[in-house]
Design brief:
Elements lengths: L14 E6 L5 H10 L3 E4 H9 L4 H9 L12 H8 L3 H31 L9 E4 L14 E6 L2 H10 L5 H4 L6 H7 L2 E4 L4 H15 L3
Parallel strand pairs: 1-3, 1-4, 2-3, 4-5
Helix pairs in contact: 2-5
């Protein structure tokens, strides 16, 4: 684990990157941080929104035709995955389209939270937190004032993944850093091996350091 990041400069809201492996509890941690006073957003949720609207729909149809659409006209992500899985050029094209759009939404999210913070609005958040599964793999750590990695025992991760219908954790983790690598790179590592209340307490302690009340 890193030595811990210093609080953001005066007048700026702390911008926090949250990550972790499949089944570690990232989404649960994000929700708890929201309850603790942070503004939150998920990169995966942003991607999901993009797939359901413009301009991504038009760009995808121009590239691959309407055979990648659901009957109701939305992009079928499973069909997209089939096209890019073994085609590096197609994957690179798709990522080159999606990630700038995701980055734009993240910038808007941060600015919205910053404005509320600077104006000392009644609903001003303590911090702005972005859940990003491939935070370190994508080289995004420098964008944040602090990073948090959520980790959990391997058997717990496997149970959670199976409950959600995912394939084996080891297989889906192949393109990611290991839990230990994420923990070593993060400013703070939070172990999710107990109750929801235990996780909340651990996250609250980290948030108190990054964004003191």
């Amino acid at each position: 684990m890193g030595t811990g990041a210093a609080p953001a400069a005066s007048g700026a809201i702390p911008f926090i990157g949250l990550t972790g492996g499949l089944g570690a509890g990232k989404s649960t941690a994000l929700a708890l941080l929201g309850e603790l006073g942070a503004a939150t957003i998920s990169a995966d949720a942003v991607v999901h929104e993009l797939y359901r609207g413009e301009p991504l729909r038009t760009l995808v149809i121009e590239r691959w035709g309407d055979g990648v659409l659901h009957a109701e006209g939305h992009i079928d992500r499973s069909l997209i995955a089939e096209r890019v899985f073994a085609a590096p050029e197609e994957r690179a094209w798709l990522e080159g389209v999606i990630w700038p759009l995701v980055g734009q939404r993240m910038a808007e999210f941060r600015e919205e939270a910053d404005v509320r913070f600077r104006l000392n609005a009644e609903d001003a958040p303590r911090a702005a937190v972005v859940e990003t599964p491939l935070l370190f793999e994508a080289g995004m750590a420098p964008l944040y004032d602090a990073t948090i990695a959520v980790i959990a025992p391997e058997e717990v991760r496997a149970q959670r993944a199976a409950a959600r219908g995912h394939a084996a954790v080891s297989e889906r983790d192949a393109r990611q850093l290991s839990q230990q690598e994420k923990a070593d790179l993060a400013d703070y590592a939070v172990v999710n091996d107990g109750s929801l209340e235990h996780l909340r307490e651990r996250l609250a302690a980290v948030l108190d350091v990054i964004a003191p009340v």
